[in-house]
Amino acid sequence: MTESESIAYDVVVLGAGPVGENVADRARAAGLSTAIVESELIGGECSYWACMPSKALLRSVLARADARRVPGLGQAVQGPLDVGAVLAHRDDFTSHWKDDGQVQWLDGIGADIYRGHGRLAGPRKVTVDGPDGERHVLTARHAVAVSTGTRAVLPDLPGLAEVKPWTSREATSAHAVPGRLVVVGGGVVGVEMATAWQAFGSQVTVLVRGKGLLPRMEPFAGELVAEALTEAGADVRTGTSVEAVTRDGKTVVVTTSAGDRIEADEILFATGRAPRTDDLGLETIGLEPGSWLSVDDSCRVTGSDWLYGVGDVNHRALLTHQGKYQARIAGAAIAARAAGVPLLETDPWGAHAATADHASVPQVVFTDPEAAAVGLSLAEAEQAGHRVRAVDVDLSSVAGAGLYGDGYRGRARMIVDLDTETLRGVTFVGPGVGEMLHSATIAVVGEVPVSRLWHAVPAYPTVSEVWLRLLEAYRDA
Questions:
Q1: CA 157 centroid distance within chain
Q2: Alpha-carbon distance 242 to 401, whole Å?
Q3: Could you tell me which residue ranges the FAD/NAD(P)-binding domain spans (predicted)?
Q4: Taken in order 351, 354, 360, 361, is the CA torsion positive or negative?
Q5: Binding-site residues, please?
């Protein structure tokens, strides 16, 4: 391997997914020379194997479900989905797994791209082993930002590698519909992919070790999603774990903790994520390989004055939109420190503090019904020691829900802090509720008093009128 002369940049970014791209963009906008390193496709997990392909798959599923609820339209959409067209739509959204457009964008902001595997080689130093056998040596005057994301975790089951299970990558990029699919895990990936492939014609069995689906949301969210999956034909089994998996020819044989034997064509493990820091050279700077990176609110790694961990690798919020938010914060902090500008680190809402990642994280689960939440659940708020009250409203009681479609089922909950009269969290479950979440996010992040929310009048007749019902329920309790 040929090693190049060391090249100095102000900032070196490891990982060119949406988070790394945003760090590079903010650094370049501040006039800092920037290099970005990527071992796979420019654009990262979100663009090719997660957010974009999964939502492209689900869009047709949810649109059909919504249409079937509308009088005069439902009969027209009773046939099966054109799965070939859906998969082609997914392929378009992933740019057919080519990154030319993303490369052009990075070129446009003036960042230098290095393809290959990047590793830390001591303080402020990165080596990149390129596909051409050349080793590039990069040094950072001000910062190295690690934005390498996460990978799927597979359980320690004998012979699992020979089974060739799906992870989120295979589930979002598959080009054929398995006749029978076992989904292991009841989190976001598990329920979204169960929703999609069941609608495409798979007979789906969902195996969940815990008590229900979507365990990080309010319990009713998982209950409503499980109910809908069951009605769609899926077999949802809770309190069940996988004891063994084998492949007999083309058939996957799953043995569960209940002693059941399930046959399938494919099995998807959606059982968690781990940081991609195991082969990153962390040991050269005294950190544990494979560990999550502990950071402050500017995303600077604890104990360092030059290393930043941005996005999934810091384990604060494993969501693309939160990672991009952190990237904007980190980029501003790196630029300020490089210019010698004092950071207002005591200001929780300043330009250099990722405060919203503590207790104001929004998330939408694109199932039917959708589940959308921001902030704390009731259990989380109580565990944190807040004096709170949960206010619940049946979404079907809102006029806009009835117009949205016949048989609309859903629920809304807001968690009110009784000491501050502000909202600690909000959860919506129901068709189309994802588009309502930003109003809740503004209320939670902005710490808007309940008394002021009274004057934010929801338009009639929309599903958003649930806000009025929630406030009335809180006032009248």
A1: 26
A2: 39
A3: 9-321
A4: positive
A5: 55, 118, 185-192, 272, 312
Burial class of 95 by CB neighbour count within 10 A (0 to 12, 13 to 18, 19+):
middle
Q: Where are the alpha helices (DSSP H) in 263-398?
A: 320-338, 356-359, 378-383
Instruction: Find the farthest-apart pair of alpha carbons in the chain and give their distance in angstroms, rounded.
Output: 74
Domain end residue (candidates: 356, 381, 413):
356
Binding residues for NAD(+) are: 185-192, 272
Q: Is the pLDDT of residue 403 over 80?
A: yes
In the annotated binding site for FAD, the residues are 55, 118, 312
Say if strands 362-365 and 411-417 run parallel, antiparallel, or are unpaired: unpaired
Does the pTM exceed 0.90?
A: yes
Instruction: Assess contact for 185 and 60: CB atoms under 8 A.
Output: no
Which tokens belong to 318? 């494993």
H helices present in 138-187, as ranges: 160-163, 168-173
**How far from 50 is each of 67, 142, 173, 318, CA to CA, in Å?**
26, 32, 9, 12
Q: Are residues 158 and 143 in the same domain?
A: no
Based on the fold, state whether residues 291 and 267 are members of the same structural domain. Answer: no
Residue where the block lists tokens 């588009």: 435
- Token readout for 71 is 């009088």
Alpha helices by DSSP H, 99-218: 100-109, 160-163, 168-173, 188-200
Tokens of 382: 């109580």
Torsion of CA 13, 14, 19, 21, to 10 degrees: 50
Using one digit for the tens of pLDDT, what is the confidence trace for 338-396? 999 877 555 777 888 888 888 899 999 999 999 999 999 999 999 999 999 999 999 99
Contact 10, 23 (CB under 8 A): no
Residues 170, 233, single domain; the answer is: yes
Q: How far apart are CA 419 and CA 384, in angstroms?
A: 14
Peptide bond into 369 cis (omega under 30): yes
Q: Which residue range forms the structural domain that includes residue 257? A: 153-272
Same domain, 21 and 111: yes
**Per-chain mean pLDDT for the chain:** 95
Are 134 and 17 in the same domain? Answer: yes
Q: Long-range contact list for 2-6, CB < 8 A, 24+ apart?
A: 2/133, 2/134, 2/135, 3/134, 3/135, 3/137, 4/134, 4/135, 4/136, 4/137, 5/137, 6/125, 6/137, 6/138, 6/139
